[in-house]
Write the structure tokens for this entry.
Amino acid sequence: MSFWTNARRAVLAVSVLLALQAAALADVNTIRARVEALATADFAAKEAIVSELAAMGDATAVPALRAFGDGDLQLRKSDGKVVIAVRDGKLYRASDPITGEDLGEVDRKLLDKIRVNNNLRRAVRAAIGSLTLLSKDPGVRRQAAESVLKSRDPGAIDTLDEAIAAETVPAIRRLLEQAKAAAVLQTDRPEAEKLAAVRVIAERGDQEAKDILAAVAASAEGDVKTAAAKAIALIEQTLAMWAAVQNVWYGLSLGSVLLLAAIGLAITFGVMGVINMAHGEMVMIGAYVTFMVQELIRTSAPWLFDVSLVIALPLAFLTAGAVGVAIERGIIRWLYGRPLETLLATWGLSLILQQAVRSLFGPTNREVGAPSWMSGAFDLGGLTLTYGRVWIIVFAIAVFALLVVVLKRTAFGLQMRAVTQNRRMASSMGIRTTWVDALTFGLGSGVAGVAGVALSQIDNVSPNLGQSYIIDSFMVVVFGGVGNLWGTLVGALTLGVVNKFLEPYAGAVLGKILVLVFIILFIQKRPRGMFALKGRAVES
Amino acid sequence: MPLGPMFLGLGRTGVVFLAALAVAAVAVPVLNLAVPPQSAWHVPTTTVVLFGKYLCYALLALSIDLVWGYCGILSLGHGAFFALGGYAIGMHLMREIGSRGVYGNPELPDFMVFLNWKELPWYWYGFDHLWFAVLMVLLVPGLLAFVFGAFAFRSRVTGVYLSIITQAMTFALMLAFFRNDMGFGGNNGLTDFKDVLGIDLQKDSTRAGLFALSALALGAGFLVCRAIVSSKLGKVLVAVRDAESRTRFIGYRVEHYKLFVFTVSAMMAGVAGALYVPQVGIINPSEFAPANSIEAVIWVAVGGRGTLVGAALGAVVVNIGKSWFTGALPELWLFALGGLFVFVTLFLPKGLLGVLRPRAAKPAPALDDEPAVRVSEQRAAE
């Protein structure tokens, strides 16, 4: 039953499509006939043809009309075909006026220009305006409105009025009204109408509006001039606000990257007090796991590509976590209570891991692709946000929340905190402290690996990936306050935002230097970071 | 042998070390310059330059050992002082080029002409004179260490926190020197040196002379360190290393002692850099890289910290190893270096000197505030 309904529906759909196509084809043929007719008609007949084309309401005719208005529409003497011919060096490059198909190079002598006068040009402009502004396709209408807004062509006002009256989409109508206002400001219409136009433009409130009004303020006089100047000031305020918001956004984005890189360190360094200089290499391992997962998917299961990152997450956590446990069991447990030696040993380890990856995967950057749901961007007010950045912020917050829950709400988290606060007492209560140490270190490393999956999307996946984050991560943890996850969150976001706000004034490098100097000074003032632990635990 | 204990308490190792340096300072130049190249005793110039470099590294290691081995300050930023000393002398060598640069500008170094600078920045004034540059070699690292240390030690930034911010310091300096606007040649640094005091830097005799100078500087640095650590001040430093809080409670101004030794150490590192640059012929911002500073720390650990002689020995041994590895098995060098870090910290806490000299004069230094911790732990347990 349902099969037959579906089949019938399909047949219906196909026949409707065919009918539409036939209609379109008929249109194209009529348009072609009209355009060909231009070649032989006199000026009066040409004007009639132009208005006929406009009346058809099919945007297919627009390129031909535009070429006609610009004097590029020419008759090819060899076969009497009308072509668009644009000068290209010594010869002319011809193309079909309807399809735009390239017809090769033609000598000037073989072409006859279809003549046009000012009267016709005006008609052509109006026709193009109405064809596009009144087009059935909202996308074409929007584009046309935008191009009129840019050209501020007073000749388009009548068509714009018509289009505004017919427009049903509010956003496009607003655009059309703005385009009309921009055009009105170029005419010598009454002051009241111009003032209204200034208001309409001012509402737009972006750089384009500011440019239009600046031109008005420069040329107009009296009330219009003052109104334009006032509107410009207002727009500048709005723009400054959006610029600030944009900076905050970039700052949060950088902050979330810092948070991802530092949060594992907040566990190993902050909670356990172990200086893990190989932390960056755990991030690198995570990134390379992502690379390998994607490689496997590319070769054997391409349809899984969009979920490659989701697959990579647990694998990266387990791989980096396992390496972390191995490091703790093999090296770090012999060095508890000797932080400076731990620092050196883990630094050595980071060199070994880097070289190992370099030997296995080569020293060059490896390609890690972005799944479709992470590419692209969208507009929000005056901002352009890329999906990749949005997801990384969301991801960073999610990882952070998950860690807080693990630390505060699980048995493992409780044991971990117990061992950190008083190892001997925890041991007396029956907690296997050595296991807790190993697992805590594994958790911190695993989180770093997960961060690597995210960072593979915005950074080069190379053996040096980890090194570029290690100093920043330590800065974040030390700045935020050791042993405090919330401190790490606030520290990362603060440093990210401060960095991005300094960049416009100081440049990227100097901004970074200033942030480093600021942290060095800050540590002098508060040696234990923003959110220092208090009480007896601090002393040991 | 009564000489040792009488003279700064040098001990046998110290005397042997100084004697070996003196012999090298005389013998190597002689064997290089006076012995004909076909003789088996001839030391080729490349070797002279290579070992001259090692001696500079040894001086850097010595300066790190002074603060780390005797005062418990693990600086991961000593490479910065080394590089600053190098830049100071490099600026003088740039001025010596005069109008012999590629652009032939008598007033400005090549890179400034290239960047369209019109006149010499004020901070380049005075570097026309060698005495001024030498003064700066001591003053600039010394001043930076003094200011940095004054802040850090007064607010009692210790242990790993200090290590991390010294690392941040050298990282910030590296970023700064990479900028072209700084006026230190940006990426490329300072290079194409021609001569010093009118003597061609490329000549064998100059290179041999620089080698001897490096050996002398290392010897002098060793004596300075020895004088510091064997004085009463040195005993306080060791006390600070072993139990900082206790020393403070006894009534010593711990931060003053630390500041003094940190500044002296930075100046020594500066001298090492200044001798290094004319021998290798270039100084660029990568000398500030945090990795370099950490590598220098491992030389000290390999040789044995808190021994001075061990630090110098470690620097030379590790760098001979590095030269051999990077030549023979370049891809394995980082494995070897990394392994060395791990191996030494796990199995050789006293370093090579601890192995060579099992019954060391001094007990193995406890690094961090361990006794204090133990006391507080006992309190907590009670």
Notes: The CA atoms of residues 79 and 287 of chain B lie 7 Å apart. Strands of chain B lie at 190-191, 195-196, 199-200, 282-283. Chain B touches chain A through 51 residues (CB under 8 Å). DSSP finds 16 helices and four strands in chain B.
